[in-house]
Amino acid sequence: WSQSGNRYTIRAKYTLPDGGTASAVNVFTFVNDSKCTWKSVSREIDGELQPDTDEIVLVRKTVEPESKGEK
Question: Helix (H, G, I), strand (E, B), or coil: what is residue 17?
Answer without folding.
Answer: coil
